[in-house]
Every structure is written in C-alpha cells, then in structure tokens.
Amino acid sequence: MRKFIRNNIIILAFFNSASVFNYLFQVVVGRSISSIDYGVFNSLFAMVSIFTAPVSVVHIVFSRFIVNLSLSGLGKVKSLFTKSFKILLGFSGTILLGGIIAIPLIKDFFHLEVTTPIVLVLITICFSMLFPIPFAILEGLHRFTRLGIGSSCTPLIRFFGALLFVAGLGWGVNGALLTAATASVFTLGFGLWSLKDIFKVSSEPLPDGTFRDMANYSGPVFLSTTMITTLGTIDISLVRHYCSPEEAGLYATAAILGRIALFLPGALITVLFPSAAKARALEEKDGYILWTSLSLTAFLAFSVALLFNLWPEQFISLFLGDQHREAASLLKIISIAMAILSLTNVIASYSLARSDYAFLFPLVAGVTLMMALILTYHDTATTIAYIMLLSVSSIFIVAFAQLIFKINRSSTATHRRT
After folding, report:
1. What are the C-alpha distances in Å from 315 to residues 51, 77, 307, 328?
2. Do residues 11 and 295 make contact, with C-beta atoms less than 8 angstroms apart?
3. pLDDT at 279
4. 211 CB contacts (<8 Å, ≥6 apart)?
5. What 8-state DSSP symbol labels residue 194?
6. Can you give the pTM of this predicted structure?
7. Residue closest to 266 by CA, chosen among 304, 237, 236, 293
8. Is residue 332 helix, strand or coil?
C-alpha cells in the first residue's frame, strides 16, 4: 500500500508538472494568435491524439506483458522490444506516406488553403507513434522516475519552442506545430536512452504464444483506448467541421482548459494498471488499488470542474486572455464531462488489467450514441458540448453499476467458499 501511494506521488509530480507546461504551451499559443487560428491549430493538433490512439494500445499491452517477462530477467524484454519496434517503425512510415498522399482531402475537411501545418502534424504523428514501446517497457518495469522524466520532455520542449517560434518569431500556427514535431523527436530519443541497460543484455527466446496472447489482448485494449480517446478529443474536430470558425475557436479554448479535469488525475492510471496487473498475476488482493485510484481521481477531477464552474471567465482570462471569455459557458459543461470521463478511465484501466471486458459494452454504446446525436444535432457548439456530457455520464453510470455488481458477486462467492 505504501509503495503504491509513493509511486502515485512520483507519477503525479512528474506528470502534472508536464501538464502545467502543456497548458503553458497552450497559453503561449492562445495569447499569440487569433481565436480563429487557435481553432485551426487545435483542430489539427487533435489529429495527433486521434491517429496515435490505436498505437497507444501497444503501450498498454506491453506494460502488462513486460510485468511477467521481467520476472525472469531482461533478455526476453529485449527480444520483445527489438521485434516489435521494427514492426512499429514500418507502420509509422506507412502512415506518414499515406498522410502525405491524403493532404488534399485533409485540407478540404479542415477548410485550409496551406499545406505546411498538415505536414508538420504528420511528422509529429510519425514520431509519436513510436513512443509506446520504450515508455511501456519503463512502466512495466516499474521505473516510474524515468517514465515521469520522459513524459515531461514533450511539454517542456513544446513550451520553450512556443516561446521562441510563436511568441518570439511570430510564426503562428506553423510555429506551434513545428515545436510539437521537434518535441516528439527529442522525447523518443530520451525513451530509447532510458533503456540502454536492456540493449546491453543478450536476447532470450520469448515464451511460446507470446505474440498470439498479446494479439488477443490487444483487441479489447484497442477498442477501449479508441473509444476513450474519441470521447476526449473528437468533439473539437466536429465543432470545427460543423460550426463557424469563431465558434470553433471558442470551443477549442473551453476544451483545452476543460480537459485539465481529465489529464490532471490521468497520471494515476500509469501506476494503477501495472500494479493491478501484477496483483492479478500473483493472485493478490487489489481492491485497495481500485478504490484508492477512484478516490484520488474523483477528488482531483471534480475539484477542477468546481473551480471552472465557479469562476470560468476568470480562469479563461488568466490562461488564455480576455479575448476568449465568451467560452465560459462551454467551459462549465466540458469540465464536468471530462471529470466524469476521468472516472470511467479508471474503471476501464482496472478492468483491462484484470482481463475483464464487460465495460466495453457501455463504452461503445455511449460513443455510438454521441456520434449519432452530433451528426443529427450540431447547430451550435453548446449543443455538441451537452451531447458529449450526456454520453459520458451514461457510460460512467452503467460501467460503475457493472463494477459494483461484480465486486458484490465476487464477495458473495468468497463467503460461500469459506
């Protein structure tokens, strides 16, 4: 219990320091460009999360399997890294080439006349897709300090890059996306450097069926990760597509701040997942892992949502300037939705660590509901925000009810055996 809490403190410190610089990056960009350009930037930047979401499955799958492989030394870990990194490198290059070919379609979707921002986003996506393997290995080996430092590289470089390219040189959207691409290159380099001790050991054969088991596990992980990422990011792009540029800019402002309620406690998942997976592998009790994580997440997320609902205009002015104050009503809605989504994320991660996939039903149904409603009702950004809140709330209520039912049923079965 003490070690679990200590690891949470380490990760919270590093990850939330990174979050501070992520939002300082947004502050610098938001204060340096117009509201319309800010909407363009965040609409394009959301593509990084959307397109890297499927590959982030690798992070979760690796983290879980590394826990077991590392028990017999680092030789098997090296074998898994070497084989998988080559595959992911080829996949990343293919995505980059495909994205370049599709540039005319992307320009048309986002109503853009220039190509450079799209190229910079594609470069960022290409390198970001390689993050999961090195950082998942660090997580699976419980090297949380290096994991935290590596996760801080990207926001730090983005922030200082924004000061130079956006605020200093006035390169606008191109400058903001250039610093994002640069950060992805440096972060990948640090992740590989952190595994230098693994590169020195001799490779050992992987257990029979390792990749088959990983492939079977990756299906539910892929679905879960894609659905949660969709809930947390796609609304910005849909507002950009359906609403006016001015309204899309205000929505982007509210969404960037509102997501603090999701990202602030999100670091706790980094400790919860490998801890729950290890407890399951060793057949240890893990109830304290779930309830500690849920409690800490609820406290952090809803504290943020409460502050944003009490003083929305003040926080918008503080972080992004007075020109975005009209986004206050949207910030109230989005911050509550993101706080609820953070709790759903805890349930999803805990369930995946235990190979329990029942939560996928309400998750997929909720995302389907959200997309259907937005495709039908999208007259204003406020309407889209309320639809997202409704969908996220429905998902959490059903997933939490399922979790409580399973815990009670398991407890009843245990009492009967004793």
Report:
1. 30, 45, 9, 9
2. no
3. 73
4. none
5. T
6. 0.71
7. 293
8. helix
Measure the CA dihedral 251/179/145/220, to 10°.
50
DSSP state of 207: P
Element (H, E) at 126: helix 116-128
| DSSP track, 81-113 | HHHHHHHHHHHHHHHHHHHHHTHHHHHHHTT-S
**pLDDT digit string (tens) for 75-85?**
888 888 888 88
For residue 55, the one-letter residue type is V
pLDDT of residue 171: 85
Decide: helix, strand or coil at residue 358: coil
- 412 falls in which pLDDT band (50, 70, 90)? low
Instruction: Please give the C-alpha separations between residue 89 and each of 54, 96, 214, in angstroms, as whole numbers.
Output: 14, 11, 18
User: At a CB cut-off of 8 Å and minimum separation 6, what does 51 contact?
Assistant: 95, 125, 129
Helices 116-128 and 75-101 pack at an angle, to 10 degrees, of 160
For residues 384-413, average pLDDT: 86
In sign, the C-alpha dihedral spanning 13, 53, 218, 85 is: negative
CA dihedral angle for residue 223, residue 372, residue 379, residue 103, rounded to 10 degrees: 50
pLDDT at 126 over 80: yes
Pick from 340, 338, 332: nearest CA to 316: 332
Separation CA 411–CA 163 (nearest Å): 55
CA atoms within 13 A on the CB side of 326: 11
Give the C-alpha separation, 297 to 287, whole Å: 15
